[in-house]
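To assess whether ligand presence alters the predicted conformation, the chain was also submitted together with magnesium ion. Input:
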Amino acid sequence: MEKDPIVRLRRVTKRFDDVVAVDSLDLDIYQGEFLTLLGPSGCGKTTVLRLIAGFESPDKGDIVMNGTSLIGTAPNKRNVNTVFQSYALFPHMSIFDNIAFGLKMKRFEKSVITEKVTEALSIVKLGGLEMRKPHQLSGGQQQRVAMARAIVNKPQVLLLDEPLSALDYRLRQEMELELKRIHRKLGITFVFVTHDQEEAISMSDRIAVMNEGRIEQIGTPSQIYEEPQNMFVAKFVGEINVFEGRIVEIHNGSAVVDIHGRHFKVQNRKDFANGRAVKVLLRPEDIMVTKDEELQGTAPALAGKIEEVIYKGKTVDLIISLDAGETVFVTQFFNEDQEDVVYRHGHRIHINWPYGWEVVL
Ligand SMILES: Nc1ncnc2c1ncn2[C@@H]1O[C@H](COP(=O)(O)OP(=O)(O)OP(=O)(O)O)[C@@H](O)[C@H]1O
Ligand SMILES: [Mg+2]
């Protein structure tokens, strides 16, 4: 990652009456990256984009682009463009005129406009449809027009506010790939907003997980998924099982945690002290299920009963109620060699996690 960010938000605060939409936020955005702001409704994602675009101004703090403060710079003077969720196309104008609109306002020559619009249409793969009106296009095609309009000026930074949320599941997956392709082709910086964790994980170079106007964690998708720094991030980016325990032994880099009287070896990256109450977090795919405790030799296990078996094709999901009380969600991958392992409602089983993929908080 480069050293100097292209856009830097420093201690930015934005209030609407008594709502603190953005709360003393620090964020560095780097040249060429695909950065996603991920968080629940109302956490301030759109407000951050509007502050960068210049549609809102901060109450406190500074927004710097290429080393120069943007405070007081009008939106059309910032080298930034936005794709809105609603697309906001002009219904009475052709696709060509929709895309050319901003260029005409800037009084580019006709031949230059035609060249730029044609290039933008080809990047979003809409060549040949320039004379149609928006209502004559599918949802996915309208989305591409909105993209073409935003990239026709070659902004340094493209802001995308939930651009795929109006599309159905299939189209959305197709457009996710398309957006990644366009991002690679243009090499410009994308700041993408979504509240869909799967979309964020599959598309981004980095994800900033937001909550109540602040960033809870920023990192690569695998850092966010596999090494969440707190319970909010752990729970927001996917299914997770939480076991309450207590550290009973400390070793070099690892520890032993007592959970319901059983002793589990865990990583101790945070140097927790002996005796500390901790939460041990496990993704559904990190847990192993066995019929007999003995099969696992000396490895500890927790006993329980299968409550629900959900066949998913490639995997089978199990909801297990432990004798000790917790409900656990487990994803098992089918193993060709284990066809005799059949999971049924009511079966007694044991769970453990021998791989060391747990997170301890
Ligand atoms: N113009 C406004 N006037 C008053 N309150 C506002 C305004 N814009 C945003 N807010 C409030 O600021 C907070 C953050 O809003 P924002 O639109 O940034 O959230 P968001 O993360 O984009 O949510 P969503 O996922 O629902 O789009 C919310 O509590 C919202 O009600
Ligand atoms: Mg929003």
